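User: I need a structural model of Interferon-induced protein 44-like from Salmo trutta for a docking pre-check later this week. Nothing fancy, just the predicted C-alpha cells so I can convert them on my end. Input:
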Amino acid sequence: MPSQFMWQSWHMLLISVSRKLPAVSCHIAESTSTCSLLPYDSQKEVILQKLKDYVPGNPDIKSIRVFLHGPVGAGKSSLINFINSVFQGHITSIALADSAIYQTHKIEKGKHGIYYPIVFNDVMGLEESSGKGVHKDDIINALKGHVKEGHKFNPMSPLSEKDHGYIKIPSSEDRVHCLVSVMPADKMAFLGKHVIQKMRDIRLAAFALAGIPQMVVLTRVDEACPSVRKDVKNIYLSKYIKEKMEQCSAKLGVPVNCILPVKNYHEEIDLNEDMDVLLLRALRQMVDFADDFIKNIPLKITPQGN
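Assistant: Understood. Predicted C-alpha cells for Interferon-induced protein 44-like:
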C-alpha cells in the first residue's frame, strides 16, 4: 500500500531560491515575484488533517516511534510540546526538559485514553564531558528497543542486560522507527567535537540497525537570524539559515533535504500559524520516514489451525 504521506520536499526549492541571493548574512530578497514562488500558502489545516488521519502502514504496529536526541539546550522537549500544542489547538507542556527518565510521550486524540498513532521519546542532552548528560550507548539501547518505560538513565553507566530497566526481547513497537537529531542553529558553531562525534556515532548505529531513517530539526532559527525573528516566513529566503543547514549537513553527514528548520514556542502564549506550518512539515517528514521503515518490517505469522 503506498504511503499516505508522499509529498515532495520543499527543501530543493528553498535551496534554489537561496542560491540566487547575495552572499550577505541574513539577507532577505525583496522581490515579490520570488516570494510568490515559495511553497507557503497557509497549509496548516491540510497537513494537520492528513497527519491526524494517519494509519501505520504495518498492521502489526499500532504506533510509530520517533526518538529525539541532541545537545543540551537544543529544544528537544520543547519540540514535543510544540507538536502536542498544534494537535490540541493551544499551548501545552507534556515533556520536561533534561529529564533523566525514559518516557513515551503520546498525543491525546480528543478523548482521554485515546491517542494518535505517533509517539515520541527524548532524553537529556548530550554533553562534551564524559560522565555528564546522556550516555550515547543508552541512546543506542533505546533505538534497539531495550529501554523500559520509566528507566532512569545514569550518565556514568549505560544500561546493561543485567539491569531491571533492560528489555531483553523488544517488540517492533519498542524499537525506534525514526531518529531525529535536534540542532540549535545559534549554538552550532560552539558545540564541542565530542558532542558532534557522539551524534555521528549514534547516526551510524541507527544506520546499522536495519537502516533506521534519520533527519535533523534545526531549532532556534529566530535566535540565529534577526530577519527570521522578525518574520518566520523569512526562513525561506535567509542566506544565513541556508548556510547553517549546510554546516549542519557537513557536521552530521545528513543531506540538506533532511534538515528542517523550525521555530519553537518560547515567549508566545497563543499558537502562530506560520510557526505551526514549519513544524508540521517537519513532522510530516518524520511520519513519512517512519512509515516507509515499518513497511519493511516482516509481518507476524499467525499459526493456522488444522
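Before docking, keep this in mind: The chain has ten helices and six strands.
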